[in-house]
Design brief:
5-stranded mixed beta sheet, DUF4835, 10 helices, 300 residues, globular, alpha+beta
Length: 300
C-alpha cells in the first residue's frame, strides 16, 4: 500500500510542477561589474532569481506547452549606474530562438538591444504582473518582452499567429507610456514602443507573413529541398521590401537582419552566382549596415 501512496505523491508532485511551468525557458545574466558596492551585487543575485521565477513559471498563454516546446530566450542586463537605494540604470540584450525541424539547430528570432532598461528593485521583493496596471518599469519591461517573444514565435509557426500576444505587448507599452515609464517614448524610433507599434501596424502585415514563410515553409524544409527554400526566402525579402519602401528606418526590419545576417549568408553560400547577386543587391539596400557582410557572397 505504501508504494502506491508514494507513487501517487510522485504523480501529483510532478503534475503540480508541470502545471506551474510556463511557456518560456528564459536565462538571465546580470553584469554588475561597473557597480562597486558588493551589497548591490548581492541584490542583483536576488533580482536574477526573481526574474527567472517571473519569466519561466508564469503562464502567459492559455496553451499547454510540453517541456521541450518552451521558447528559449535570454536576457543579458548590463548595469551602468545606481541611484539611491533601489534605482538602476542599465542596457539589456533580449534574444529568442526557435528550433529548426529535423535538425539539432536553432534560428534566432529576436535580437534586440534595449538601451534604456532602467528599473527600480527593492532587495528581496518578488515581481508581480497585473493586467492593465502599471506595476513599475521592471514588471512592464519583462511582461512586454515575454509577450513579444511569444508573439514572434507564434508568427513563425502559423501565418499571423501571434496577433493577440502582440496586442498584449502593445497594451503594456501604452500603459507604461501613459504612466511615464522610462524607455517607452513614442518618438524613440529604435525603442520598445516603436517596435511593437510597427508589429501591430497593418502596413507591416507583409513582414509578419514573411516570418511564417521564412521559418515554417523555408527553413523547416531546407534539408528536404534547399533550392526551393532559397527561392521561398527571396519572396520573404520581397515582402520585407514592401514594408521597407513605406518605412525604411523601421526598427522591426533592423532587428530582423541583425538576427539573421549570418544565417542568410550561410543559406546562400551554396546558391548559384546569379541568385547570390540578386540577394546581395536586395539586402544591401534594405540593410546597408551589414553590406560588407553580404558582399562576402560575391567572393565565393
Amino acid at each position: 500500500m505504501r508504494k502506491y501512496f508514494i507513487a501517487l505523491i510522485f504523480i501529483l508532485t510532478n503534475f503540480t510542477a508541470f502545471s506551474q511551468q510556463g511557456e518560456l525557458n528564459c536565462t538571465v545574466t546580470i553584469d554588475a561589474e561597473s557597480i562597486e558596492n558588493s551589497d548591490k551585487k548581492d541584490v542583483m543575485n536576488q533580482l536574477k532569481a526573481a526574474m527567472l521565477e517571473f519569466m519561466n513559471n508564469r503562464k502567459w498563454t492559455t496553451d499547454e506547452y510540453k517541456p521541450e516546446e518552451r521558447v528559449n530566450c535570454n536576457i543579458i542586463i548590463t548595469l551602468t549606474s545606481v541611484s539611491g537605494q533601489s534605482s538602476y540604470q542599465a542596457t539589456a540584450m533580449i534574444t529568442s530562438t526557435r528550433p529548426l525541424y529535423n535538425t539539432n539547430k536553432e534560428t534566432t528570432i529576436l535580437k534586440f538591444l534595449d538601451r534604456k532598461f532602467n528599473f527600480e528593485y527593492v532587495e528581496g521583493s518578488a515581481i508581480y504582473y497585473t493586467e492593465n496596471t502599471f506595476n513599475g518599469n521592471l514588471t512592464a519591461m519583462l511582461s512586454y518582452y515575454a509577450y513579444l517573444i511569444l508573439a514572434l514565435d507564434y508568427d513563425t509557426f502559423g501565418k499571423m499567429g501571434g496577433t493577440k500576444y502582440y496586442e498584449k505587448a502593445r497594451d503594456i507599452a501604452n500603459i507604461a507610456q501613459s504612466s511615464q515609464g522610462i524607455g517607452w517614448d513614442q518618438l524613440e524610433t529604435n525603442g520598445r514602443f516603436s517596435l511593437i507599434q510597427n508589429l501591430t501596424n497593418t502596413q507591416f502585415a507583409p513582414f509578419r507573413e514573411g516570418l511564417y514563410i521564412y521559418h515554417r515553409q523555408a527553413m523547416d524544409k531546407f534539408l528536404i529541398n534547399a533550392d526551393q527554400s532559397r527561392k521561398d526566402i527571396i519572396t520573404v525579402f520581397d515582402k520585407i521590401k514592401t514594408v521597407y519602401n513605406i518605412n525604411p528606418t523601421s526598427v522591426v526590419i533592423k532587428n530582423f537582419f541583425n538576427a539573421k545576417v549570418e544565417e542568410i549568408i550561410n543559406i546562400y553560400s551554396q546558391a548559384t552566382p546569379e541568385m547570390r547577386q540578386q540577394v546581395v543587391s536586395t539586402l544591401r539596400q534594405m540593410d546597408p549596415l551589414n553590406a560588407d557582410k553580404y558582399n562576402r557572397l560575391l567572393k565565393l
